[in-house]
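Friendly challenge for the regulars: who can give me the C-alpha cells for this chain first? No prize, just bragging rights.
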Amino acid sequence: MASSLTKDSVSPGTPGSEKTFFGHPRGLATLFMTEMWERFSYYGMRALLPLYLVAPGGLGLSAGTATAIYSVYLSLVYLLTMPGGWFGDRVWGPRKTVAIAGGIIMLGHLTLALPSSGTFYAGLGLVAIGSGLLKANISTMVGQLYDGPDDPRRDGGFTVFYMGINLGAFAAPLIIGTIGENVNWHLGFALAALGMALGVAQFLIGSRHLAAHSSVVPKPLSAEEKTSTLRKAAFWAAVAAVFYAIVGFTGHYTLNWILVPLTLLGVIIPVMVLTRIKRDKSLDRTEQSKMSAYIWFFVAAAVFWMIYDQGGSTLSIFAKSSADNSVLGWEFPVSWYQSVNPVLIMALAPVFATLWLALARRGKEPSTIVKFSFGLVLVGLSFFLFLAPLAIADGGHKAAALWLVAIYFVQTCGELMLSPVGLSVTTKMAPVKYASQMMGVWFLAVTAGDATTGLLSIAGVDLNKTGIVAAEAALAVIAGVAIWMYRKRVKELMGDVR
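First reply, four minutes later:
Bragging rights claimed.
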C-alpha cells in the first residue's frame, strides 16, 4: 500500500530505506496511511453519532442528551491522551501501543455496528480508549523518523502527516455518512471498523520502515511500580463496580450516573493538572512566569473548543431539523457538513502559512497573543452568524445550506489562527521538567471545553436557542478582546517566548 506512494531517494543515507515518501523517510508513508484510515474511521463515526442518537430509527434521544453524549465522548478522547502517552512511555512503547490502540478502535466500531442499544455505549468507550492511546503515540513516531529536531525535513514531515489526517476526515463523512444515513446506521459504523482494519493492516505491514527505537519503552516501569499501578487500578475498578451495582440494583440508575461524573472529571482534571504544575516549587522563576502566561492561553483554548466542537453536535442537529440540505435541488446527507472543515483546512492552511511568512519578512507578523485573540473573536463571530439561520428557522422556514458552510468557514479561519499557534506555544513554554507532558496538557483544553458543553446539556440548557448561542458568542468575543487588551502583561510573563 505504501510502496505505490514512494519514489527514489533524493539523498543517499535517508533513514528507513533506499526509497522515500515524497523525499521523507519511508516510515512516514506507514504512519500517514495509518493515521488517514484511523481519522477516516473516527470522523466517519463522529459524523453519524449525533444524528444516530436523535434519529427515530437510532436511539431516539433528545437533542440535549445527544449533545451531552457527543461532548462527553469528545472530552474523553482528549482526556485519555495523557494515560495513552504514559502507556507508550512506561509500558508498551509507541509502536506496540499504536498497534493495540488500532485493534481497540476497530473492536469499538464493530461493537457500535451491532444492532443493540445495550452495547452502544461500550463501543463508544472502546473507541475513546483506543483513540487516546493512538493519538498520544503516533505523532511521537513521526518525530522519531528524523535525525533530531534540527533535521530540515522534520517540519515538512509533520505537514505531510497532517494532510493524512485531513484526507481521512474529508472522505469519511462522504462515504460513511452516506451509507449510515441513507442505507443503515450500523452498516455505517461497520464501515468505520473496516477503515480502522485497513489502517492496522497498513501499520503492521509497514512497521519495518519505522525507526527502531519506536518499539523501545523509554522509561519502563519497575516491578514495584507495576505492582503498585495494578493494585491502584484494581481498587478503583472495584469501587466503580460496587457503586454502579448498588445504583443499578436499587433501581436508581439513569444515563446521567455516567455522564455527570465523566463531564465533571473533564473539567476537574485539567484544573488539577495545571494547578499541580503551577505550584511545583522546583520550577524556577522564569518557568513559573511562563506557566502563568500559559494559563491565559489554556482558558482561551477551552472557550474556543467549547464552541468549535459544537460544529459536530449543535450545528449538525440543527441542520437535520431546520436546514435546507440541498444544492440546486439535489439533497445531500447532513453528515456531509463534517467534510467542510477538513477541505477548508487543506485549502486555507497554505494561505495562512504564506501570509505569516510575508508579514514576518516585513516585521508585521502578529504575535502569538494577537493570533489567539483573533481566533477567539472569529469563533465567537461564527456563532453570531449562527443567529441568522436560527432566526430563519424560528420564522418557520428552512435555512439555506450556505449559512452553515459560512459558519464552518469562519470557524476554520479561527482554528488556523489558534490551533497551530497553541501547539507551538505549548512546546516553547513548557517547563523542562514537564516537557514531555505539556502536549497532553494542551489536549486537556479540548477536554475542558467539551466537558463544559456536556455539563450545559445535562443541566437542560438548549444549545440551539438564540439566547444561549448569543451568550456563547459574546463570551468568546469578550475573551478574545480581554486577551488582546492584556497582551503586554501576558508578553511580560512569557519572557523570551514570542
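The CA atoms of residues 289 and 469 lie 35 Å apart. The radius of gyration is 23 Å. Your move, everyone else.
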